Amino acid sequence: MAEAGEEETASAEASGFSDLSDSELVECLDLEDAKASAVSLSKPGSSELPGKDDKPVSLQTWKEGLDVLSPMERFHLNYLYVTDLCTQNWCELQMVYGKELPGSLAPEKAAVLDTGASIHLAKELELHDLVTVPITTREDAWAVKFLNILSMIPTLQSEGRVREFPVFGEVEGIFLVGVIDELHYTAKGELELAELKTRRRPVLPLSAQRKKDCFQVSLYKCLFDAMVQGKVTPASLAHHTKLCPDRPLGPAVLRHARQGGVSVKSLGDLTELIFLSLTLSDLPAIDTLKLEYVHQETATVLGTEIVAFEEKEVKSRVQHYVAYWMGHRDPQGVDVEEAWKCRSCDYGDICAWGRGGGVLSSPLEPKTKKLK
C-alpha cells in the first residue's frame, strides 16, 4: 500500500519530474544528438505514422517494424543518460510514451526545470567560472566534457570540491552518461557525492521518489568508481558513442583547450589524455552518497539523506531496465500499489497499462523483440 498521505499529494508532484537531476536534464535537452534521437509519432488515434523521410506508413506496417527493432535501435540511441534509467524506476511506461510521443514540456514542468537549473547554476558559479565554447560536432561536445574533467581532477585534489562532474561508462552492455552535482571531501577525508534535488513544494518527497533518487546516486557511484579504477576504456567509448576519434576539433574547442594548457588536435588525442589522467590521478572511489532536498522558492534545505549503496540491488535493477532497451522484454507500468502515480501522468488518457489492467493493450503498444 502507499504511504499515508501519498494519494493526497500525488497530484502536485507525483510525476517524479521535479526530483530528477536538473543539471542532467538540461544537458539532455541541450545536446544536439539527444534532440535528433527523438522519434515523432502522430497523435493518438491516427491510423498513419511517420516513416522513412517522414512519409506516412500504416499502423500495421509500423508495428511490424517495431517487432524486429530494439528500443535502442528504434530511437536511434547510441547511449543512455542516467536520467533514462531513473525514469524507468518511476514508471517505465511513462518513459516509453515520452520517447514515442515527444512534445513540448507542459508549462508547469518547464518552470520546474528552469527554476531547478537556475539553482544549480548558482551553486556551480560558487566554485567555477563558466565559459561558453561554441561546438559544431558531437566530437566537439565530448571534447568539452573531457576538458571539464581534466580541469576538475586537480581542483578536486587541491581544493577538495567540484561541481557538475561528467561521468560515463558501460553498464550491463549499455553505455551510460551522467553529471554528478557535487563531489567533495568530508572532514574525515572521505569522498562524498552530494546530489541536489529542488522541490516545488516545501515538503520532502514521497518514498517512491526517494527510491528513484537513491538509485540515481548509486548509478553515479558505479560510473565514477569505474572511471577512476581504469575500468572504462577508449575502445568501449568509441564502440558505443560512434564518435570519430580522428575528426579535427573545432577552432573554438582547440582555443579553449590551449587556454587550459592542453595541446591536442583531435578527440582521439584528448581521449588518450583523459583516460591516462583518470587512472593516474589517485582519486579514490566514492565513500558516501548524500541527497539534499531544497525548496525552489526559498532555497531552504528541507532535509538530507545518506544513501546506503547496495551493489547487488543496483545491478539487479540495471539488468532489468536494460532488458527493455535491448528488446528482451516489453515495458511495464506501475504496480497497483503505486497506481496513484497515474493521476498526474501526461499519458493517462492513452496509457495501455491502465486500460488493460496491467497488460499492454493499446494500438500504440511499444512492442520489442523477444529473446529466442
Tell me, rounded to a whole number, the average pLDDT.
78
Counting H and I runs of at least 4 residues, what is the number of helices?
Answer: 14
Largest sheet: 6 strands, mixed
Give the tally of β-strands: 8
Runs in which pLDDT lies below 50 for 5 or more consecutive residues are: 1-62, 361-372
SSE arrangement, N to C = HHHEEHHEHHHEEEHHHHEEHH
Radius of gyration: 21 Å
In percent terms, what proportion of residues is strand? 5-15%
> Could you give the distance between the termini?
36 Å
Tell me what you see in this structure.
This protein is globular. Mean pLDDT is 78; it is low at 1-62 and 361-372. Helix 2 packs across helix 7, helix 6 (82-100) crosses helix 9 and helix 8 (138-159) packs parallel to helix 12 (267-280). It has helices at residues 6-13, 22-30, 32-36, 59-66, 71-74, 82-100, 107-125, 138-159, 207-228, 234-241, 251-259, 267-280, 311-325, 352-355; strands at residues 48-50, 56-58, 80-81, 161-171, 174-185, 191-199, 288-295, 301-307. It is α/β, with parallel strands linked by helices and 372 residues long. The strands form 2 sheets. Strands 3, 4, 5, 6, 7 and 8 form a 6-stranded mixed β-sheet that branches. The protein has a two-stranded antiparallel ribbon with strand order 1-2.
